[in-house]
What does this fold into?
Amino acid sequence: MVPSVFNRFGKRSRLLDANAFSRVFDKATRSRDNWFTVLCRRNDLDVARLGLAISKKHSRKATERNRIKRVVRESFRHHQDQLTGLDIVVMNKSQTDGATNDALFDSLSGHWSRCARAASNGQDA
It folds into this structure.
């Protein structure tokens, strides 16, 4: 079975350099909960792009950081079509280590909805 184009996480779907991250950090819509802070801002592209800022300060073990990144990327892949035209940066909080994958997926789903809503309301999401 061949994966659809929308379910891939290729190079076009990633924030690749410091300038792209800085652009999002400078003026973004923020969404926060116990596990993540998600920043989003419109881009002039027909694709959503994701950047990860999973810090060692909040997740000491590399295996935990990698698990969090996998969950975020997978959730993003599934919601990519509703996030078209947004640059998004996801940052973890210290409580993320103890959370189950299901809890993280639920949290991210809420963040994606808030980002999509902010973009559709005309805010500089």
User: Anything to note?
Assistant: The beta strands are 29-32, 36-42, 49-53, 86-92. Residues 36-120 form a domain with the Ribosomal Protein S5; domain 2 fold (CATH 3.30.230.10). The chain has a mean pLDDT of 88. The two ends are 35 Å apart (CA to CA).
